Amino acid sequence: MSVTPLQRGYPMPSIKFADVEFPDHNTPSPYSIWRHSMPSIFAQKLWKQKLVAALAAADAGPSASDLVNAPALNHWRAFVTPKGSPFLFGMVSGHPRLGSRWITTSQLVGINPTHGWARTASRWYQLSCPFADLEAKVARGLGVSDAGPDFLQVGMPGCPSLDDMTKLSLLLSAWRNRILQADGDRHV
Asked: What is the pLDDT of residue 21?
């Protein structure tokens, strides 16, 4: 992709349609290709600021009002993206935008299952029963006495589950360092 100056001096990427595959054979406009293919440095910086603020909140821990107003996440399980970013999957209730349904959260930055909370880039969550409890209940109902992790398969393509809280803590520490060390011009 090359940058060519426009008449008023603003750079705009030049894209060759021959280099772009369109599976549905509909050719989008050059602007829509540019808009969807160029990462927004401004958006990346805002996201990094949001992550840093969420880290600070997780370090301080939730206040009583943070948890009273937080959505509840039941049957939750941690997963890891291919880039090493942890997130939670579970049945949410009381979410301000998503209501009550199965969700994946934004990036996880802090968790304390003993005290019943998790902090993501977006918000606090009250943690209810972990997914392992649901697995054990289903296993007992099926007469299986020694069901281990992943007895119930939850498909998150390319994202392995992580039930070991010690390993999750280590991952969160590494993820935290990555966020804090990332420069503003790259994805975190």
From this structure: 45
